[in-house]
Structure formats: structure tokens, C-alpha cells
Write a structure and sequence with these properties.
alpha+beta
């Protein structure tokens, strides 16, 4: 039964006794909601229209237009292009480098055997990655491909990498990578509709897992250059093969559950970028005009009507044109004396520039953009004018974002590509890896890898080195290997081996004849003999 409120009737509700729940709702509507933002009488938010859309409903209809705008900013807006380059330069730099770290205990290998296998695996991968044969178009090495695979998702929302096999003369492996731009992933005709399982080119199974990707054989914008042979034709690529090995990698950042495609990082600040660009251009134009020292001649000569029209011709009296007697003023010169005609005067153009508030206004918007992109203003502008502590804090804050994106790039691209290369090397017999193709557990043990990139920049390397020494004094706080990776971007074991070889080479050098030979310490027995004599 419905519970009723046993209270006196209230005239506000027509004298009715209402159900308890209905009464509570009406009172809340009158006095306000629990959150200020949801109050029906909040005038500040009355014009804010929101929707309850899913990730795909909010993203898919708009992601293409956002990508086009972001690319235009990358082409024409120096701050936007610089922000993308800053992220790529710090995340990728000259490339994330693998260090093979197989699980020797699972594989039953001695430390010496594991070390030898790891060196050989790295040697094979570096040979492949250094070559442009790693790219199906032979346009870039794998280290350069990493920058492409990071830049495009940042700018366009996502990118795809297809595993290809293309043996070439002189190449040690046939594995190569094909980059596919986001625009080419689209839903084929006839597969659209509310009941379709294809979302903007990504075909999913009942669990939402990507099963197949549909690509246009040519970029949809290619028709601009009359390359229309393959426009409208599609091909599909399975996400994985029959053994669960990825065949197509989808590079995008997932911000919501069930999100099938990515969105440019510029999405929240596209309008800010554009308006700031217009503002900067207007101020620059005004400054250029102000720098042009324009001079105008004002004449007080009488003027007469022109055919009865409202307009007049200066210097004309009746049907006669009055000629000024001055020498005229066409160019300013040092020490010049101007001889003006009677009634003429000089006026100077003054556009009231430069704007003294320009720098502060721009700096405020740079801070907003930097917060969105994970770049403090000092890092975004590459301008460190504050104290050492403030500048270092800005760098540390930016590196939180760089490390997160570095991890994303490692899992999205680098580690799957390492697996592709090592798998072919094992299949060719270049590496001996028992159980690699038969046992997934052993396969994972053989493919263990860590990825290292360029270290964080240092404002004062001496202070950083002293801080590292202090950290090493605390048992268990850090290791030399961690410090080598974080501070120099190198591997501790490789450094030790290289140091050993360098010392052996130095010890084997013949003595320098120009350097004096150090005297050997005197023998105490010889000193006694000298005293007796």
C-alpha cells in the first residue's frame, strides 16, 4: 500500500493529502536541489543543454570534424603545432629502445644463457628497426614510426598499424608496418544503422571487442587530386589471427567505457586556439601598421559642389582648380624643412598600439591550454623565467603526462611490434626459443621486455647527481640501474660492460713518452745501507 502523510492539509498543494514521495519531490523542487548545479532556478546554468549520450553517441558523429579542425591548427597555428612537437619530443625523442628481459627461471636458463639470448634478440631488433625496410613504404625507420604513431592519435584521434610481410633483398626480416590514417577507417555501405555492429569502421563482437577493421582502399580526400580509382572501395583486416596474435593495432586513448574511436586532444581547446590565433594576428597587424610612420596632409582650401552632388573635390573653387603653392611632402628625411601651402597642416596616424595587456591575456590562455594538454605554461612556451624550484616543478609536472603517454605508446605499439619481430626471428631459426609457439606461458617469458626513452631534462645536473647519491644511501629506496635509466636513459649492465672494455683498452695502451715516469717508492733496506755507508 502507498503510505500517506498524516499531516494537516497545505493550501500550497490544493488542500490534498499526497503520497509521501510525491510530497517530498514537490518540496525539493520548490526549495532547490541537493546540488547547486541542478537547481531548476539556477539562472547561471539555464542555457546549458546537456545530453545522456553513450561514448559512441557523443564521439562518432563529431570526431571527423574535430580531426579536420585539429589538422588545420597543426598546419597554421604555431602554438598548436609547437604543443604537439613538445609532447612527441619528450615522449619519443629519438625513439623508445627495448631491453630484453626474459624470465630465465621459467625458461630454465642460467644467467649467462639468458644474457646471451637477450643480446642476440636486441641485435636482431635493432638491425630491423634501424632500417627503413621496417616500413612498408620505406619512408622511415621504426624509431621515426613511433613519432608518427603518437602524433596522429594526438592530432586526429587515432591511427592504425597493420602487420605486413614483404621480404626485400638485403633485409633480414620480412615483417614491416603499414600506417593507416584514421579517415580511411569507415563503415562500408549497407552496414550502417542502429542494429549494426560496425562503429565508424570498427566491427565488434557481442562483448564489444574489436574483431575486424574496415578500411577504404584510398583516402577519401584523394579525389581532390583526381585519384578516384579506389575511392569507395573497402577492404577488411581481422584484429587478430587464429592464434590470437594481433594483425592490426588501433592506436587511440580510451576515455570512456565502450568507446570505439578516439578524439583529438585539441577537442576542448580548439575554439581557444582559433580565437587566440585571431587575437594574436590582429595585434600583430596593428603593431605593423603602427610601425609605419604614416603622415597625412590636411588642407583648408575652399571646395565647391560637383554637379550638384553632395560630394566635393578639395581644392576646387567653382570650375577652377586651385593649385597649392607648397613643395609638397612625399617622404620624411632627416633635417627636412617642409614648405606647405596656405591652409595645409600635417597629421600623423596613431593606431594606439602596442596593447599593453596583450602579454598577460595571452599568458592566461596559454595556461588554460597547457592544463588541457598536460603541459605547464613554462614547458608549453619553452620559457623558464621563474626560480629554479618553480621551473623544476613545471618540468616534473609535465613528465607525469609524458610518462603516461610513453606507457601508452609502449603497450599500443612498441611491445606488439617487438613480438612480431622476435616471432619471425624464432621462426627463421635466428633465435632458439623452445616452446615459443606451443606454450603461451613460455612465449610471454621469451618476450619479456622493458622500454627506455630519453631521460627527463635537468636544469642543474650537479644537483640531480648529488640527489641520486643521497637516494642510494637509503637501503631499498632505489638502485643504480633505476638511476641510470631515469637520469641518463641508459642500461646499467650495458654501462658496466662498456666501462670494463674501456679500462682494458686504456690499460693496454703503451706509456706516453711525453709523460714523466713516476718514481717507485724507496726500499727501506736500501735506506739502511746508505746510512751505514
Amino acid at each position: 500500500m502507498t503510505a500517506y502523510v498524516d499531516t494537516p492539509r497545505d493550501s500550497r498543494f490544493g488542500g490534498l493529502i499526497l503520497p509521501e514521495t510525491t510530497l517530498a519531490q514537490m518540496i525539493r523542487a520548490e526549495i532547490g536541489a541537493s546540488y547547486e548545479a541542478t537547481r531548476p532556478n539556477n539562472k547561471n546554468l539555464m542555457g546549458w543543454a546537456t545530453s545522456m549520450g553513450s561514448a559512441d553517441a557523443d564521439v562518432l558523429p563529431h570526431r571527423d570534424q574535430i580531426a579536420y579542425q585539429a589538422r588545420d591548427l597543426d598546419r597554421n597555428n604555431p602554438l598548436a603545432a609547437g604543443a604537439l612537437d613538445t609532447i612527441v619530443d619528450n615522449v619519443v625523442s629519438v625513439g623508445l629502445r627495448p631491453q630484453s628481459r626474459i624470465d630465465a627461471e621459467v625458461l630454465g636458463l642460467t644467467p649467462e644463457q639468458a644474457s646471451a639470448w637477450q643480446r642476440q634478440a636486441e641485435r636482431i631488433f635493432f638491425t630491423w628497426a634501424d632500417s627503413k625496410d621496417s616500413d612498408v613504404t620505406r619512408a622511415q625507420s621504426f624509431w621515426e614510426y613511433q613519432a608518427l604513431a603518437l602524433l596522429n592519435p594526438l592530432m586526429s584521434g587515432d591511427m592504425f598499424t597493420i602487420r605486413r610481410f614483404k621480404p626485400r633483398p638485403g633485409s633480414i626480416l620480412g615483417t614491416c608496418l603499414q600506417a593507416v590514417e584514421a579517415d580511411r577507417c569507415a563503415t562500408p555501405p549497407g552496414r550502417e544503422g542502429p542494429t549494426s555492429n560496425v562503429y565508424s569502421g570498427v566491427e565488434c563482437d557481442s562483448d564489444g571487442e574489436a574483431a575486424r577493421y574496415h578500411f577504404l582502399k584510398d583516402h577519401p580526400g584523394s579525389m581532390i587530386y583526381a585519384r578516384i580509382a579506389n575511392v569507395g572501395e573497402y577492404t577488411s583486416v581481422p584484429a587478430v589471427d587464429g592464434n590470437g596474435i594481433p594483425l592490426c593495432l588501433h592506436h587511440y586513448v580510451r576515455r570512456r567505457p565502450d568507446q570505439k574511436r578516439g578524439v583529438s586532444v585539441f577537442a576542448p581547446v580548439i575554439e581557444t586556439f582559433k580565437q587566440l590565433g585571431r587575437y594574436s594576428e590582429a595585434e600583430l597587424t596593428a603593431a605593423v601598421v603602427s610601425s609605419m610612420f604614416a603622415v597625412f596632409i590636411k588642407s583648408q582650401l575652399p571646395s565647391g559642389p560637383l554637379g550638384g552632388l553632395a560630394g566635393t573635390i578639395p581644392g576646387q573653387v567653382g570650375s577652377m582648380q586651385v593649385t597649392p603653392t607648397g613643395t609638397g611632402l612625399t617622404k620624411l628625411q632627416s633635417g627636412m624643412i617642409a614648405d606647405l601651402a596656405p591652409g595645409e597642416d600635417i597629421a600623423f596616424a596613431n593606431p594606439m598600439r602596442a596593447n599593453s595587456q596583450f602579454e598577460s591575456v595571452v599568458a592566461a590562455f596559454y595556461s588554460q591550454i597547457g592544463v588541457c594538454l598536460g603541459l605547464p605554461r613554462e614547458v608549453l612556451m619553452k620559457h623558464f623565467a621563474a626560480s629554479y624550484s618553480a621551473s623544476r616543478a613545471a618540468i616534473l609536472e609535465a613528465w607525469k603526462s609524458f610518462k603516461r603517454r610513453r606507457l601508452w605508446l609502449t603497450t599500443s605499439l612498441c611491445q606488439p611490434v617487438w613480438a612480431w619481430v622476435i616471432s619471425e626471428a624464432v621462426a627463421r631459426g635466428m633465435l632458439k626459443a623452445p616452446g615459443f609457439f606451443e606454450d603461451p606461458w613460455k612465449r610471454a617469458a621469451w618476450l619479456g621486455t622493458t622500454w627506455r626513452g630519453a631521460p627527463m631534462g635537468q636544469l642543474d645536473p650537479l644537483k640531480e647527481a648529488k640527489a641520486a647519491q643521497e637516494w642510494l644511501k637509503i637501503p631499498g629506496a632505489t638502485t643504480i640501474q633505476d638511476i641510470a635509466a631515469e637520469q641518463t636513459g641508459t642500461d646499467y649492465e650495458d654501462n658496466l660492460e662498456q666501462t670494463r672494455r674501456e679500462r682494458e683498452q686504456i690499460a693496454a695502451l703503451p706509456p706516453d713518452p711525453l709523460q714523466p715516469v713516476a718514481a717507485s717508492p724507496a726500499d727501506p733496506d736500501d735506506e739502511d745501507e746508505g746510512e751505514q755507508q
